[in-house]
Amino acid sequence: MSKYIRANMIHSAAYIHQAADVDENSSIGRGAYIGRSASVAEGASIGRGATIDDGATILDGAIIDDGATVRSGAVVQHGAHIGAGAHIGDGAIVGTNCFVARGAIVPTDCELLHGSAWPVS
Question: CA distances (Å), 77 to each of 56, 120, 121, in order?
Fold first, then answer.
Protein backbone atom coordinates (compact mmCIF):
# COMPACT_ATOMS: atom_id res chain seq x y z
CA MET A 1 0.00 0.00 0.00
CA SER A 2 1.08 3.57 -0.56
CA LYS A 3 1.77 4.24 3.10
CA TYR A 4 4.64 6.59 2.31
CA ILE A 5 2.48 9.11 0.52
CA ARG A 6 1.18 11.94 2.65
CA ALA A 7 -2.20 13.45 1.88
CA ASN A 8 -2.18 16.32 -0.62
CA MET A 9 1.33 15.68 -1.87
CA ILE A 10 2.54 15.44 -5.45
CA HIS A 11 6.08 14.06 -5.51
CA SER A 12 8.58 16.04 -7.58
CA ALA A 13 9.75 12.82 -9.28
CA ALA A 14 6.26 11.98 -10.58
CA TYR A 15 5.52 12.62 -14.25
CA ILE A 16 2.23 14.40 -14.93
CA HIS A 17 1.40 15.19 -18.56
CA GLN A 18 0.53 18.86 -19.09
CA ALA A 19 -2.88 17.84 -20.50
CA ALA A 20 -3.76 15.69 -17.45
CA ASP A 21 -6.26 16.96 -14.88
CA VAL A 22 -4.80 16.30 -11.43
CA ASP A 23 -6.42 17.87 -8.39
CA GLU A 24 -3.96 19.62 -6.10
CA ASN A 25 -5.56 17.79 -3.15
CA SER A 26 -4.58 14.36 -4.45
CA SER A 27 -1.42 12.40 -3.60
CA ILE A 28 0.97 11.24 -6.33
CA GLY A 29 3.97 9.08 -5.42
CA ARG A 30 7.55 9.10 -6.62
CA GLY A 31 7.97 7.79 -10.16
CA ALA A 32 4.24 7.67 -10.86
CA TYR A 33 3.13 8.40 -14.42
CA ILE A 34 -0.08 10.32 -15.19
CA GLY A 35 -0.79 10.35 -18.93
CA ARG A 36 -2.41 12.77 -21.34
CA SER A 37 -6.08 13.52 -20.62
CA ALA A 38 -5.98 11.37 -17.48
CA SER A 39 -7.96 12.65 -14.52
CA VAL A 40 -7.11 12.27 -10.82
CA ALA A 41 -9.73 13.67 -8.43
CA GLU A 42 -9.44 15.28 -5.03
CA GLY A 43 -8.45 12.88 -2.29
CA ALA A 44 -7.23 10.15 -4.67
CA SER A 45 -3.90 8.49 -3.86
CA ILE A 46 -1.54 7.20 -6.57
CA GLY A 47 1.35 5.04 -5.33
CA ARG A 48 5.02 5.02 -6.22
CA GLY A 49 5.70 3.86 -9.76
CA ALA A 50 2.00 3.51 -10.60
CA THR A 51 0.84 4.26 -14.14
CA ILE A 52 -2.38 6.06 -15.00
CA ASP A 53 -2.58 5.89 -18.80
CA ASP A 54 -3.98 8.43 -21.21
CA GLY A 55 -7.68 9.08 -20.65
CA ALA A 56 -7.99 7.02 -17.46
CA THR A 57 -10.10 8.45 -14.62
CA ILE A 58 -9.42 8.08 -10.89
CA LEU A 59 -12.27 9.43 -8.75
CA ASP A 60 -12.21 10.88 -5.24
CA GLY A 61 -10.94 8.71 -2.43
CA ALA A 62 -9.66 5.96 -4.75
CA ILE A 63 -6.33 4.35 -3.84
CA ILE A 64 -3.95 3.04 -6.50
CA ASP A 65 -1.11 1.19 -4.76
CA ASP A 66 2.56 1.10 -5.78
CA GLY A 67 3.31 -0.24 -9.26
CA ALA A 68 -0.33 -0.69 -10.31
CA THR A 69 -1.43 0.19 -13.84
CA VAL A 70 -4.74 1.72 -14.92
CA ARG A 71 -5.01 1.56 -18.72
CA SER A 72 -6.58 4.01 -21.18
CA GLY A 73 -10.24 4.80 -20.71
CA ALA A 74 -10.52 2.82 -17.47
CA VAL A 75 -12.43 4.35 -14.55
CA VAL A 76 -11.68 3.71 -10.88
CA GLN A 77 -14.66 4.98 -8.93
CA HIS A 78 -15.08 6.54 -5.48
CA GLY A 79 -13.30 4.74 -2.65
CA ALA A 80 -12.05 1.81 -4.76
CA HIS A 81 -8.70 0.25 -3.82
CA ILE A 82 -6.33 -1.17 -6.45
CA GLY A 83 -3.60 -3.38 -4.93
CA ALA A 84 0.12 -3.12 -5.66
CA GLY A 85 1.10 -4.34 -9.12
CA ALA A 86 -2.51 -4.88 -10.23
CA HIS A 87 -3.48 -4.17 -13.85
CA ILE A 88 -6.79 -2.56 -14.84
CA GLY A 89 -7.47 -3.15 -18.55
CA ASP A 90 -8.50 -0.61 -21.18
CA GLY A 91 -12.04 0.66 -20.64
CA ALA A 92 -12.60 -1.36 -17.44
CA ILE A 93 -14.76 0.12 -14.70
CA VAL A 94 -13.90 -0.56 -11.07
CA GLY A 95 -17.01 0.35 -9.09
CA THR A 96 -17.42 2.33 -5.90
CA ASN A 97 -15.69 0.74 -2.89
CA CYS A 98 -14.39 -2.23 -4.92
CA PHE A 99 -11.14 -3.97 -4.01
CA VAL A 100 -8.71 -5.37 -6.57
CA ALA A 101 -6.08 -7.67 -5.04
CA ARG A 102 -2.33 -7.24 -5.33
CA GLY A 103 -1.10 -8.37 -8.77
CA ALA A 104 -4.62 -9.10 -10.07
CA ILE A 105 -5.61 -8.41 -13.67
CA VAL A 106 -8.98 -6.87 -14.47
CA PRO A 107 -9.67 -7.60 -18.17
CA THR A 108 -10.37 -4.99 -20.83
CA ASP A 109 -13.94 -3.61 -20.73
CA CYS A 110 -14.78 -5.55 -17.56
CA GLU A 111 -17.08 -3.91 -14.99
CA LEU A 112 -16.77 -4.61 -11.28
CA LEU A 113 -19.97 -3.81 -9.43
CA HIS A 114 -20.22 -1.68 -6.28
CA GLY A 115 -18.35 -3.19 -3.34
CA SER A 116 -17.10 -6.30 -5.14
CA ALA A 117 -13.63 -7.85 -4.90
CA TRP A 118 -11.37 -9.14 -7.71
CA PRO A 119 -10.42 -11.85 -8.15
CA VAL A 120 -13.33 -13.66 -6.61
CA SER A 121 -12.13 -16.58 -4.49
Answer: 11, 19, 22
